[in-house]
C-alpha cells in the first residue's frame, strides 16, 4: 500500500521526505512549511503490519517518482531509516526514475555486529517501550517535543513486535548497495556531531563510496537534526538545492 501526504505547490520541484524509524511523516512538518513552493511528498514508510524491507520501499518510491515527477527536478531527503531507503534508491534508480539531489541524514551503513542478539534482547524491552513515562524519555533523546509526543507515542504503541523486528533487522544489517557509486545524483551526507561513532563511520563510508559527494557534520546535535534544529536544517537543505554556499552552522 502506498501511503503519503502531499503539500505545497503542485507545479514546484518534487521534494520527497523519508522519515526515520520510530517516527512518522509528521517529523517533516517544519520542513514542509518552509518549502511550500515545492511539491512536497511525505510517505509513511511503515504502515500497519505490512512487511517492511528497505529494498522494497526503495523500489516503491522510485516507481512513484517515475509516475509523478513529470519532468520536474527531483529532490529526496532521508533521515535515519529513510536515509537508508534513499541510499538504496540511489543504487537502484533508472534514468526515468532519476533523483537529481539527495540529502542523506544519519544513515547507518555497514551493519551492526551481533545485530540478531541485540534485536532479541529488544523483545524483552517491548512492554517497557510502550509505557508512557519511558516513551517520554525516548522522545526526549530523539528531540521530539511535547507538540509531537502524542503522535510519536501513538506510533510506538501501535507497532507490533513483528514489524518492529523487521524494521530493526533491516536497519542494523543495511550495507551500501552496488550501483550507489555510479548514481548520477548530487549527494549531500550529514551526521550530528554528537552522534555515536558508528554513525560517523557510516558517513565516511558513504563519502568514500562517492568521492564527488559532500559531507557535513552538524554541530551541537545528536541523532535527529531535522527535529532538533529545523531552521538551520532547512537553510542547509535550501542552500544545497540552490547550489549556494552553505550557511554558517
From TrEMBL:
Q: Which InterPro entries match?
A: AB_hydrolase_1 (IPR000073), AB_hydrolase_fold (IPR029058)
Segments spanning the bilayer are: 74-92, 104-122
Give residue ranges for domain AB hydrolase-1: 15-234
GO MF term list = hydrolase activity
Q: Does the keyword Transmembrane apply?
A: yes
The alphabetical list of record keywords is: Hydrolase, Membrane, Transmembrane, Transmembrane helix
Q: Which domain of life is it from?
A: Bacteria
Q: What is this protein called?
A: Alpha/beta hydrolase
Amino acid at each position: 500500500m502506498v501511503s503519503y501526504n502531499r503539500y505545497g505547490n503542485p507545479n514546484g520541484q518534487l521534494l520527497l521526505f523519508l522519515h526515520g524509524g520510530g517516527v512518522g511523516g509528521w517529523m517533516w512538518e517544519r520542513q514542509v512549511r518552509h518549502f511550500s513552493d515545492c511539491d512536497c511528498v511525505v510517505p509513511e514508510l511503515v504502515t500497519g503490519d505490512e512487511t517492511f524491507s528497505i529494498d522494497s520501499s526503495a523500489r516503491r518510491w522510485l516507481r512513484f517518482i517515475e509516475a509523478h515527477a513529470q519532468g520536474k527536478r527531483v529532490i529526496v531527503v532521508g533521515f535515519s531509516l529513510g536515509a537508508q531507503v534513499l541510499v538504496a534508491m540511489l543504487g537502484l534508480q533508472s534514468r526515468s526514475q532519476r533523483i537529481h539531489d539527495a540529502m542523506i541524514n544519519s544513515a547507518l551503513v555497514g551493519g551492526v555486529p551481533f545485530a540478531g542478539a541485540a534485536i532479541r534482547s529488544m523483545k524483552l524491552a517491548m512492554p517497557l517501550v510502550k509505557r508512557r513515562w519511558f516513551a517520554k524519555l525516548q522522545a526526549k533523546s530523539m528531540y521530539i517535543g511535547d507538540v509531537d509526543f502524542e503522535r510519536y507515542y501513538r506510533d510506538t504503541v501501535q507497532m507490533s513486535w513483528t514489524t518492529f523486528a523487521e524494521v530493526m533487522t533491516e536497519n542494523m544489517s543495511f550495507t551500501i548497495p552496488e550501483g550507489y557509486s555510479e548514481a548520477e545524483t548530487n549527494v549531500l551526507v550529514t551526521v550530528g556531531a554528537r552522534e555515536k561513532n558508528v554513525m560517523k563511520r557510516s558517513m565516511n563510508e558513504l563519502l568514500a563510496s562517492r568521492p564527488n559527494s559532500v559531507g557535513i557534520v552538524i554541530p551541537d546535535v545528536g541523532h535527529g537534526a531535522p527535529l532538533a534544529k529545523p531552521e538551520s536544517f532547512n537553510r542547509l537543505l535550501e542552500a544545497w538545492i540552490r547550489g549556494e554556499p552553505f550557511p554558517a552552522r
